[in-house]
């Protein structure tokens, strides 16, 4: 029983571990830099352009306008509503004009016309290789009344400003300096009058997305691509989604994720083109529209819209221009569309109160027009190149990036990584060359050392042989000399000095003095005829006798008597 319990507990632990592992690693997280790099090409700035022929009428004011203004001001003074001062009365007159100008204006019959345009911008992201993209409906759709006002602000700006400046100059002539608020009020009143009399004809709407374009040797620029509107929802509080299409192939794409797995506290990243960081005179606009802004935050909550569908609340910064941009999870997958932010009572953006439509709503729109999001070959290869670069396989990454840049040029992020990979490969090649040179030098040195050692060994071998041979010969000579000396010592006479050296006389058989042979007469004559050149100095001990006789033995050199026939010392027969 205990064994069964232990087995069950073990199985439960294994299941829990596997379950936790599966949950934790369902989608691998990537670092923000990689997330931004691989998704930048698929995020574009979307511009909606309205073009129309604008016609407006010249207007003037009825003559009773001034009389009614004076009567109204007098009444205000009598009632005590304003002080009885010129400044107070002029200020009241400006306010009365702003509020009642439209009731006293009339057309003079003169008509003016021109062709003009206005535009709005937002962000979109590409979801298929053939150019389907997602954005907000309000990016490509504007209320007609608002559109007319935009035309008035665009086309009639000069006229409204001129009229407001003329009125301000007249007030200064009368001794009153208008405040900035009063000037803006008068200008807006003139805008309203122009807009009321304005007619809009031949209205045309076009959609353009701007994609990065880099030409070698030239400045960074932007390239506009025409879009078609395929499906559109309703702006907030409706499902604020629009689907557009560009006519291209193998475009960079972003990966669509699953918003149902999101939980409060999950980290998210918003990308887009906020106007404050894109369309401002302080920045290089051509470059700014290629570099979407990345902000990060968390999922703050899931809220429910009035229509009964959910929306994501996040504290990731979202501003005007971000509309329609993607909201990524940590795996780099789109889980929402950045749509709007809340305003505070003062009119400013409420920090941390931003909302994104779940990507599941956009999927519904795509399904209705039979579009399935998919990753392009371009994006797959770019991800592979980035992975190879990160694992220091620079040559392989460089090959892929060159192909991408040749087939589909114009993306700054590709050009940037291509430049980095090329620099890495060049650096490695230089290091390899230096290492090869060092190795070659080391090998040459080793070969030289081996050759020298071999030559030295070859040179030393005969020397050793010669030395050993010489030692052997010397030893043999020494042995021979010793043997010869030994034999000679035995043969030399004892106690005889001959020519200053000891001499050992040969030993002969003893002879009797009675048998001593006699010296012949021939021997005496021979001894007497010995040449002077062969005369030898007799031994010292025989010196005295030598002086007496002058005869010596030719064998042992002993002194002889004048009558001896045989040597008394060695027994040799004398001649």
What does this structure look like?
- This protein is an alpha+beta fold and 575 residues long.
- The chain has three domains: 32-334, Thrombin, subunit H (Beta Barrel), CATH 2.40.10.120; 377-491; 494-575, no CATH class.
- Helices cover 44% and strands 23% of the residues.
- The protein contains 15 helices and 15 strands.
- It has helices spanning 2-24, 32-39, 64-78, 86-104, 137-140, 144-155, 157-173, 180-197, 285-288, 359-368, 377-390, 394-407, 412-491, 521-528, 543-549, and strands at residues 43-61, 105-126, 132-135, 199-213, 221-232, 242-245, 255-256, 267-272, 293-304, 310-314, 326-328, 333-343, 349-358, 496-498, 501-503.
- The strands form three sheets. It has a six-stranded antiparallel beta barrel with strand order 1-2-3-6-5-4, surrounded by four helices.
- Helix 6 (144-155) packs across helix 8 (180-197).
- The longest helix is centred in the last third of the chain and has 80 residues, at 412-491.
- The chain is rod-shaped.
- Residues 1-26, 214-220 and 492-549 have low confidence and may be disordered.
